[in-house]
Amino acid sequence: MRFLGDILQMLFGFSLPEQAAENVHLVDDLYNVIMLLSIVGFIGLMAVMTYFIIRYHRSVNNKSAYIPHNLTAELIWTIIPTIIFVGIAIWGIIAFNKMETVPSNAYKINVTGKQWMWEFTYKRDNLEVNVADVMYVPVNVPVVLEMTATDVLHSFYVPSFRIKRDTVPGMKTRVNFTATKKGDFKIFCTEFCGTAHSKMRGIVRVVSQERFDQWLNREVKEANISDPVELGLRVYSRNCATCHSTGTNTIIGPGLQGLWGSERAFENADKLVADAEYIRESIISPNTKIVKGYPAKMNSFAGLLTEKEIDHIIEFIKTLK
Length: 321
Ligand code: CUA
Description:
By secondary structure, the protein is an alpha+beta fold. It is 38% helix and 22% strand. The protein folds into 3 domains: 2-100, Helix Hairpins; 107-223, Immunoglobulin-like; 228-318, Orthogonal Bundle (Cytochrome Bc1 Complex, Chain D, domain 2). It has 7 helices and 12 strands. It starts with a helix and ends with a helix.
């Protein structure tokens, strides 16, 4: 049976995406058989039509015979198509059931569709991690996706796995697959969901179990750092490091070493001791107090950093003695 499927796949499957999951042949076999039936049907119909055009041309048969009905012909054109169509329907139901059966050992990933990105949530030991747009999965391991959406309908589609399912706000939908090839495979949103719908794409990255565990361990660790100083360092590296060094040297603005608790002199001759309030103000409203000898070049970070992130930066600055 697989052998026949492979031959049909060679003949008609050239236009299909790469096969990279366990159940893809269920979809492709059905597609290829319907393709074959359509081609045979089309050629047969055209052949008979051509034959009739010539055989019963007006120049040969001027007057048509009177035929009220023909039981044999009627039975043939009723029974054969019925068998074919009901057969396709039953085959489709069987294939559908097979694809929908979630193996009991399936690895669960939560998927959230939102305008306009895919978010993947992994859980490990009561800790969870959210990643966007690239979904890591181990090869040859059954995976079940529990999906929802936050705003409008989206539809999660991985052509190479032959899976496609809507994600619906307030509802859980699921789809499962077992990736059989390592590599990157495209995810599309295949339901029009707003202006950036066509940009709502992602990648399934299929890797070895070992590599997957490494990746997940690292992500979970990263996402669950609770030390405020460590978090502050991260916020600093992303937002402040291009202008403020962690030493005393000047990049553009003053270096941060020794800032906490020191006396600051400003362009307008005021002075004060650097505390949390001062650092917060310098981030939110940098031009209120300009440190003597420095340009008024910094832009406000209001709305770009959360209150928590500012607290973390303050904790980090405290450690720069
Ligand atoms: Cu989301 Cu289209």
